[in-house]
Design a protein that fits this description.
- By secondary structure, this protein is of the alpha+beta class.
- The chain folds into two domains: about 60 residues, no CATH class; about 25 residues, no CATH class.
- It contains three helices and seven strands.
- The strands form three sheets. The protein has a three-stranded antiparallel sheet, with helices on one face. A two-stranded antiparallel ribbon has the order 4-5. A two-stranded antiparallel ribbon has the order 6-7.
- The protein binds zinc ion.
- Zinc ion binds next to strand 5 and helix 2.
Length: about 120
């Protein structure tokens, strides 16, 4: 059941459905209120709610007006080279994670070309 269907299901038995939390973009406190009007249409006030997977994300009205797409909500794995292999850093042992913190990033203007 997606978010719209679960809200519809909740509104069949309750007068309103409210989501409380913090805006995903600006972290301000937000309450999104869903009600049904006289024409049987769902009215959403206070912002927006998203459920791309299991977790529900909220956006305040200002952030929703600025950008109505939910961004940067997916976890990402960081891969780096450890003992000669590219491996996700989350799988490294404690010692290698400590060593990783000490690594320094260098930028070079040198162009690498196939020989
Ligand atoms: Zn916001």
């Amino acid at each position: 059941m997606n978010l719209k269907e679960s809200i519809q299901h909740e509104l069949d038995t309750h007068k309103e459905v409210a989501f409380e939390g913090y805006c995903h973009d600006c972290s301000t406190r937000v309450q999104v209120l869903c009600t049904v009007n006289a024409e049987n249409k769902i009215i959403i006030e206070g912002g927006a709610a998203y459920k791309p997977r299991e977790q529900i994300y909220l956006k305040c009205d200002a952030c929703f007006t600025k950008d109505n797409t939910l961004r940067n909500y997916q976890e990402c794995s960081v891969y780096s080279r450890v003992v000669g292999y590219l491996r996700p850093a989350e799988n490294w042992n404690k010692g290698k994670l400590e060593e990783w913190k000490m690594r320094k990033e260098y930028k070079t203007d040198k162009k690498w070309e196939k020989t």
